[in-house]
Amino acid sequence: MSWRDGDIPEIELFTDGGAEPNPGKGGFGVVLSYKGRTKEFVVGYELTTNNRMELMAVIFGLERIKTKAKVTIFSDSKYVVDGIEKGWAENWERSNWIRKKGNLVLNKDLWERLLDVLDKHEVTFHWVKGHAGHIENERCDVLANEGINLEDKLEDEGYLDYLENIENYKEQKIENEGDPCRKCSTPTINKSPKKRKLKPNQSYYYEYYLYCSNCKAIYMVEDAKRELPNNKSLF
Predict the structure, then answer these.
(1) 29, 76, 83, 121: which is the annotated catalytic residue?
(2) Catalytic residue among 36, 131, 222, 227
(3) Which helix (H) or strand (E) covers residue 17, if one does?
(4) Annotation marks residue 93 as catalytic
(5) Which one of the listed residues 17, 26, 44, 61 is annotated catalytic?
(6) Which of 105, 147, 148, 204 lies 20 to 30 angstroms, CA to CA, from 42?
């Protein structure tokens, strides 16, 4: 889609995606609407997931818009809508794409791509209930299924890379002083808490923890866990 120089178009973007089974063959459908004119897109993938198709649909639609625009996005994916509207993706980016328990964020490649394209537009997300009679959402669902059933489907290289490196997405444990911080790679140091707060009936405490002096991350380690005799308080 293109517009006259100087225009700031207001565009509606409707998306849906899925995989059968999950993971399995995937597809997504996109409808772009501007002043009563619409464009539809269908894309299919050999092996992918529901969430990746939902993300790709939004990314694909935004990347089709070649000038800065005010874009209202309608998606039935809580994963996508909440990921942006609740700030999850930005928090993951600040944490170097590592979640609190040490797991790498799934679909990092697509979240990075989405955050990048969002910077080019003024975007608002709206969640819509799927299969509830929303005309454009129902149309996108039809298109997504067409994508799943396409003869010539694409390879989802990001998902294939995940499958090849799945061990890297499991929890990365910090166990010893000097182990690099998961967020910034600074060597951790051993620290003892100034005060130990115990919950009612708590039967253990941590004698020390590992601490990152750079980003202030704290890691509780199993070797520092101490049992309280007979559930007695420390104080």
Answers:
(1) 76
(2) 131
(3) strand 10-20
(4) no
(5) 17
(6) 105
Q: Residue 125: name the closest of 54, 192, 71, 51 by CA.
A: 71
- Rounded CA-CA distance 228/158 in Å is 47
Using left for φ > 0, alpha for ψ between -120 and 50, and beta otherwise, residue 102 falls in: left
pLDDT at 142: 97
Domains along the sequence of the chain with CATH: 10-169 (3.30.420.10), 174-235 (no CATH)
Handedness of CA 112, 210, 192, 233 (dihedral sign): positive
Antiparallel, parallel or unpaired: β 10-20 and 24-34: antiparallel
Q: Yes or no: say if 206 and 226 are a contact pair by the CB < 8 Å rule.
A: yes
16 is catalytic: yes
As a whole number, the mean pLDDT across the chain is 88
**Catalytic-residue membership of 54:** yes
Choice among 18, 27, 61, 141 that is catalytic: 141
pLDDT at residue 234 tops 80: no
Confidence of residue 72 (pLDDT cuts 50, 70, 90): very high
Does residue 10 carry a catalytic annotation?
no
Catalytic residue, from 16, 18, 26, 44: name it. Answer: 16
What is the per-residue pLDDT across 167-200, written as a single tens digit (0 to 9) for each? 777 766 778 888 877 767 788 999 888 766 667 7
Output the pTM of the full model: 0.75
Torsions phi, psi for 178 (to 5 deg):
100, -15
